[in-house]
Amino acid sequence: MAVVTPAERVAAASFTAVPRSLASAAGPAIAGWLMAEGWDAAPFLVCAALKIAYDVAMLAMFAKVRESG
Description:
The protein is mainly alpha-helical. The chain has helices spanning about 10-35, 40-60. Helices cover about 70% and strands about 0% of the residues.
């Protein structure tokens, strides 16, 4: 939100909220299936790997961007 103008913040928020909502809807079903198959730790490991990948991608994308305003 800090890298867009105040007028663009609503659009930026909705652009990031939709994929997050879709992923949070599918996540419990996938986790339940993995746990039912006997892979009890798999949902936690997958979640950790995705979070690390997301954080590294955000760092790489915005490392040189300075706050506007």
